Amino acid sequence: MKVHRLAALTVIIVILAFPALAQQPAPTLTPEQALQKYRDSKAPTLRDDFGELGRYRDANAALPASPGAESRVVFFGDSITDGWKLDEYFPGKPYLNRGISGQTTPQMLVRFRQDVVELHPRAVVILAGTNDIAGNTGPMRLEDIEADYASMAEIARANNIKVIYSSVLPVHNYTPRSINMFAGRSPEKILALNAWLKNYCAASTGGVSNCLYLDYFSAMVDDKGLLKKDLAEDGLHPNAVGYRIMGPLAETAIQKVLLEAR
């Protein structure tokens, strides 16, 4: 009888312990651990389809072979572009979103022909570089990121596509969610890439430049050199307030290059 009572008491203790165990917070990952976890999760994709050409294959095939008279523009980039609901911020505009979350410039270069050139846009708005700095697909030197930028612009130029190169956005570390995002993205490297992009777009090639620098950074940075806190909860990805700042700047740049292309 005592054995049965002891067994029953043990079961009760175990049952009562489950809620306490369930309430234990998940262990906090260091920035290095978080990056490795992300890279491990992407390993199959990077192995089988490095550029993620499959993401927009069907959508691209469904487009008319030629856009006709419309001023088609492709927004090309990573998660900041991927999460931008273009139809809400540019209603009625023939703008295509070809952003893929997490991508770096080497991945974008792999898919540039399929997701930009073969869509025959008048212009492409490229927003890239923050994931290169973070090391999403491995360590990247600034010189190699810049080489990828230049390669995309040269391919676009060869196909009569105007390039709008967006500045890399600032980041912040003002919230718990932002700590890991910020840790891998050096503000100094962001400034260096933006300086290179600005100079590259300002320089002429053969007397003609097909590149315009779109400065989101200056409109979104605070007095500490970081992203304004109210523009992104996680320190990196713009919320609606952030996109409302970016939208008019992008539209002004688009109309400028389209006017020059006439």
Could you walk me through the main structural features you see in this protein, from its secondary elements to its overall organization?
- With 262 residues, the chain is of the alpha/beta class.
- It has one domain (29-261): Rossmann fold (3-Layer(aba) Sandwich), CATH 3.40.50.
- Helix 6 runs parallel beside helix 8 and helix 8 packs parallel to helix 10 (187-202).
- It has helices spanning 2-22, 31-48, 57-62, 79-82, 86-89, 105-115, 130-134, 142-158, 179-183, 187-202, 217-220, 240-261; strands spanning 73-77, 95-99, 123-127, 162-166, 211-214.
- It has twelve helices and five strands.
- The longest helix has 22 residues, at 240-261.
- Residues 11-22 have low confidence and may be disordered.
- It starts with a helix and ends with a helix.
- It has a five-stranded parallel sheet, with helices on both faces.
* SSE series: HHHEHHEHEHHEHHEHH
Compute the number of structural domains: 1
- Second rung of CATH, namely the architecture: 3-Layer(aba) Sandwich
If you consult CATH, what is the topology?
Answer: Rossmann fold
Helix and strand content put the structural class at alpha/beta
How does the overall form come out from the CA principal axes?
A: globular
CATH superfamily: SGNH hydrolase
List the helices and strands and how they pair.
Blueprint: H1 2-22, H2 31-48, H3 57-62, E1 73-77, H4 79-82, H5 86-89, E2 95-99, H6 105-115, E3 123-127, H7 130-134, H8 142-158, E4 162-166, H9 179-183, H10 187-202, E5 211-214, H11 217-220, H12 240-261
Helix pairs in contact: 6-8, 8-10
